[in-house]
Design brief:
The structure is a homodimer. The first copy, chain A, has about 110 residues and is of the alpha+beta class. Chain A has 6 helices and 3 strands. In chain A, helix 2 crosses helix 4. The first copy, chain A, binds a DNA duplex (30 and 30 nucleotides) through helix 3 and helix 4.
DNA sequence: TCAATCAATAGCCGCCGAGTTATCGATCCC
DNA sequence: GGGATCGATAACTCGGCGGCTATTGATTGA
């Protein structure tokens, strides 16, 4: 049961790959060449990372002649925020419970 | 430059480990034995995962006789929400720029 | 037409991490 | 004290993943 959380966490866990995604968020659409120039790794490595990001739905590609432009798809982060909200909700629900409230007073 | 995001994403990227953390969020404090019973992996594997979670600040341990009780530390998730908020902020900021550009083109 | 550029793919390698079994230290109970 | 239980550690295996170079395919432009 490999859900959306698995894919997102797994995809974003690599620093190089996450840096690429962050850059696309900051600066908008970028070509593979531009991304490679600042990534510190080879062009094939960047292409692989972009493939993983694309399969996770975090980026989309647009072909224009020889170049491929990639851009961030921020909506794909929704499951991530949902997950953290859910964890907080669990926490909150237990916190409302008197027994758990007392149990947590020593923290 | 291994920041808090690296640690969090890396720690939560493993499904087994994330399941342990989720369970601690849902059900509160649990012993290693209880966590092992439902994890599907061996006790040493669970202990290792708990060690990783502890080093990431996501759980704390409390010793009581032979048993060790673990509980979730939800505050440690803050860098994660910060990160997603930041990504959204970048995207929003670029969207505002585009809006300004279009607004100026109208005039 | 042909050289040059861009990005993707193939193929390979090395390492890290998640899993295992075995064991140890500590604690509980009889 | 001695056996049993709990959890951490040791030592090892193995698969996957991130990196590389080399190559291919496609497109550009001289």
């Amino acid at each position: 049961m490999t859900n959306a959380h698995d894919v997102l966490f797994r995809t974003l866990s690599d620093p190089t790959r996450r840096a690429i995604f962050e850059r696309l968020c900051r600066e908008g659409e970028q070509t593979v060449g531009a991304l490679t120039a600042q990534s510190g790794v080879s062009q094939p490595a960047v292409s692989k990372h972009l493939g993983v990001l694309r399969q996770a739905g975090l980026v989309r590609d647009r072909h224009e002649g020889r170049q491929t432009h990639y851009s961030a798809q921020l909506g794909a982060l929704a499951p991530l925020t949902d997950w953290t909200n859910q964890m907080n909700a669990f926490w909150q629900s237990r916190f409302d419970d008197l027994e758990d409230l007392l149990k947590r007073m020593d923290q």
